[in-house]
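Ticket #4471: structure output looks truncated?

Reporter: J.K.
Steps to reproduce: submitted the chain below (155 residues) through the standard prediction queue, then opened the result file.
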Amino acid sequence: MTYGNLLKMRNVLKYCLITTFLALSIIHFHWSAGGSIGYSSSLPADENGNILLAPTTVDCILVGVILLLFAIVYTQNPSNLNFKVFKYFFKFGQWIIPIIFLIRAIGEFKYVGFFKEVTTTEFAQMDTLLFSPLCLGIGCVGIFLALKNPKTIDK
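Returned output as attached by the reporter:
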């Protein structure tokens, strides 16, 4: 693969991550404003259908802001930043974000992730079909982007 093609692929993947984080952020802000699209299927439940999380408006806003910050992390190239603090923040972020999502994809082995025990609830089905694969994809793409920094690629 040529250097130019690798940079193009990196940019496409980077913009996919940015778009994904922006979309997820918008969904959480929608929920914080009282919206209900997808809300009930995004909350883990036990075998009896009892919801295990009760996120507040503040929780939804906080998660929305964090996802927005994740998008911002991928808009920057750490090597182009002048301040060391920002450079390390963005460089660290580009490693920690995919690790968080890979851990989420694996799950906690009962209600969340690929290895969950409870598989009959609406959340469990959505987790298997969408949430865990999305987290795995975000994690893998994020690791690829962190490893394939264009400054370290031999031309």
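Triage note (M.O.): checked the attachment and the full token line is present. The mean pLDDT is 91.
Status: closed, working as intended.
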